[in-house]
Amino acid sequence: MNNPSRRTFLKQSAAVLGAPLVAPLILAKPVAGANEKLNIAWVGFGNQGWGDLCACAGGNNVVALCDCDPNYWDRAKKEFPGAKLYLDFRKMLGEMGDKIDAVGIGTPDHTHFAIAYLALSLGKHVFVEKPLVHTLWEARTLRQLAAKKGLVTQMGNQGHAFEGALLIKEWYQAGLIGEVREVITWTDRPKSGWGFNGNVMTEFPQASPPPKGMDWDLWLGPVGKKVGFSPALHPTTWRPWWDFGCGGLGDIGCHTIDTPFWALDLGAPDSVEVEMKGEVNPIHTPNGSIVTFNFPARGKKPAVRVKWYEGPSVPEAPAGFDLGAPGGEGGMIMVGEKGGIFHPGMRPDSPRLYPKAKWEAYRASGDKQVPKTIPRIPGIHRDWVDSIKNGKKSCSDFSYSGPLTEAILLGTLAIRTGKTVKWNTEKLEITGNPEAAKLINPEARKGWRVEDLV
Question: What pTM did the predictor assign?
């Protein structure tokens, strides 16, 4: 892996950012037959990454595993005795690259990009937990690189493969609720929920010794400033910290906003507004933010306003909504001209139409009034594996999940700065908010920049 010169790197970066917004997807040839095994490597298998790894491993070979905290290695050794264990993904890919077909990534958000970029550069198919990356430049760059390489990619927004997501898109396309101009979404994060405790921090926690054998410098990844180990950061509570995670919106928005984003073909917002319930915080997400994404008209389809409420803020029910007050861990309401669609929770597990009379009429028809026009998907993980084996496009590949992540990240920048973000997606440019503009592509520290990786 020879390092290109700085001049070459700058030319490559300019080419990526100057490329068409939607690069053509040219899939590589299948690496195996439908019944053959893939050689899979995984980086980050402590929590969510473990579930992803196990879901993709069935019927395949897990040949290499990487986690900078070896305290998670014991169960991996028992479950995958044939896999070689590593602390550093760069060493793993350097030594095992020719033995690996596909790489999964379940690390904190701030290290997704470097791992995925190196894996894609080496010709590996890639799965990344949501959100795809930590910055807007990273999202655009990975999207273009994956398309250029013709590799099968997938983001781990599991609900995208749910039956409920497919039904919602089919209901909308069939005209059951008419045209949509407003979507309401909400979550209990960061006030509560996995990885959040509602405490808003204004300084980094006091450092303490890391777990035995852990490489804390590797965990910090591209973050330039040194932050000492703390159980307030690792293993599960890093999401509220802006240097490492993307707050409640980055965590749950990729689930809850995903379905309307896909069903309505929303594309890129041209502006994102924010109402702050707490003080703007440069290091930690606050509680109670309300974010409004303004998506422009798409052809004959009208402009759409998507509102996002973070805990403890909750929305009011829109006119005609007779399914009770919005609440719980979260949910989505798609407001149409002729009623709407609602699902409780972060993912589209059990969508239904409203008002109640519309839902009852739909159920009485035996669901025959809306044909199933969208192919069904065997889960986000199996879809990725099957797509690699068969040379097909996966359901949440980077050509889709990249733009979704960009929209989500724009919302986080509105929260981080407390100001409206005006977005030019073609130029990858923010105007009127210089603080947010600086965060489009913050410089990674040496060893984690693109020119250091390839």
Answer: 0.93
